Amino acid sequence: MNKITNHLPTKELQALDAAHHMHPFTAGAELAAKGARVITKAKGVFLTDSEGNEILDGMSGLWCVSIGYGREELANVAAQQMTQLPYYNTFFQTTHVPAIALSARLAELAPGDLNHVFFAGSGSEANDTNIRLVRHYWSAKGKPSKKVIISRKNAYHGSTMGGASLGGMKPMHEQGGLPIPDITHIDQPHWYEEGGNKTPEEFGLERARQLEAKIKELGEDKVAAFIAEPIQGAGGIVIPPTTYWPEIQRICDKYEILLIADEVICGFGRTGNWFGCQSLNIRPHIMTVAKGLSSGYVPIAASIVCDEVAKVIDEAGDFNHGYTFSGHPVACAVSLENLRIIEEEKILENVRDVTAPYLAKKWATLADHPLVGEARSFGMLATIALTPDKKTRAQFASDTGDVGLRCRERCFQNNLVMRHVGDRMIIAPPLVITTDEIDTLVARAIKSLDETYAGLQADGMLTAA
Ligand code: PXG
Predict the structure, then answer these.
(1) Domain at 73-344: CATH architecture
(2) What is the 450 CA–ligand 1 centroid distance (Å)?
(3) 3-state SS string for the chain
(4) Residue ID of nearest Cα to ligand 1 atom 18
(5) What separation in Å is there between the alpha carbon of 228 and the centre of ligand 1?
(6) CATH class, range 37-67+347-458
(7) pTM summary value
(8) Rounded mean pLDDT of 432-456?
């Protein structure tokens, strides 16, 4: 093994990490006993760990490193911007060229009349901005009772109090007394897990109509907005039935509520278009963007707002909201360079015409594996459901997530980052992944599935709930 010598031995790094570093979404004591994997560098779609292993990153970091690791252009732009103007704020009637240029560029790329950009440092912050924006909007229009935001169970919209409240993750709500008031959740369009004997189309319509029922139940005069990811990411890459979004759009058009598309994962090419709402024919009033905006090289996010909402907010006086790092000049400059690379290297066209269709074809073959109940993809998002019984889509008798975790461990051992969400496996590789690298990814996934299957057989765990 190719040992890296210019840092402390792995065991010492792991001990320091366990002693001082609190990890997100992690059982600290469990990780301390096991030791975190230490990532030291990365290039293209491959990570290197402190033991010299080369790991194919099937998750683009956390759904963000779209143009791949190690692009020096972004480092150079950051260095240049840090030298010229490392920081200045955009409060109190000042601005700077990177924030001007990036907001103009986003207005150009965003569909319809989404022409106004409010910057934040993370997707969670941008969604907090959205909560305040939509409530302030209705208040400024003389309808202060329109406060409630409708979201969906198993949605992910961030980890701040607002973001986690918008999200529909029960384990998150249980910690810290969430959701905050005036946020409510309808069911998700997750046909595989919840569709029963209905066709996906029937089920999609039924789930969409829950939005209409909820608006009627609460009263249109109480509802400010509906928020949703075009395709749920952290919830397990839930690709909705084709009937779902057209019906949601019809309902949003019929009632006086704002539609917020959370594009934090779908944005900037993940679905083959600049935005997921273009792939799914959705017309939002506000989009949340983050992650792929800078390919994860620097933290940045934004709410992209339509003309009407921006006009009302602008005319209502001060919007008493903002972050120290709203429109950070280095983050804006790096994001502009990232968008330039995506455009000039025709990365979206390549995803649409070459790599996404290739991934779809290869990924579909996983459905033949005895452990796989469904294998689906959409653009550079792909998922498989693990099941003990392919015909009935049954869950395992073991606790949900045990089998997924086993599979993730096998993937890790086989130098592939593939995540599990319960007993569902998901990937979202960098958009620049090549067809050869997709072959490697799928081969490692199959090897990991085979090993998981053998392990389950040996441990007598292939039984249905
Ligand atoms: N909206 C969506 C749709 C997201 O996926 C956020 C908002 C929040 O963004 P920030 O930048 O505040 O993290 C996200 C983030 C996972 C995972 O395990 C997903 C996210 C973050 C961390 C972990 O899949 N998505």
Answers:
(1) 3-Layer(aba) Sandwich (3.40)
(2) 30
(3) CCCCCCCCCHHHHHHHHHHHCCCCCCCHHHHHHHCCCCEEEEEECEEEECCCCEEEECCHHHHCCCCCECCHHHHHHHHHHHHHCCCCCCCCCCCCHHHHHHHHHHHHHCCCCEEEEEEECCHHHHHHHHHHHHHHHHHHCCCCCCCEEEEECCCCCCCCHHHHHHCCCHHHHCCCCCCCCCEEEECCCCHHHHCCCCCHHHHHHHHHHHHHHHHHHHCHHHEEEEEECCCECCCCCECCCCCHHHHHHHHHHHCCCEEEEECCCCCCCCCCCCCHHHHCCCCCCEEEECHHHCCCCCCCEEEEEEHHHHHHHHHCCCCCCCCCCCCCHHHHHHHHHHHHHHHHCCHHHHHHHHHHHHHHHHHHHHHHCCCEEEEEEECCEEEEEECCCCCCCCCECCCCCHHHHHHHHHHHHCCEECEEECCEEEECCCCCCCHHHHHHHHHHHHHHHHHHHHHHHHCCCCCEC
(4) 234
(5) 13
(6) alpha beta
(7) 0.97
(8) 98
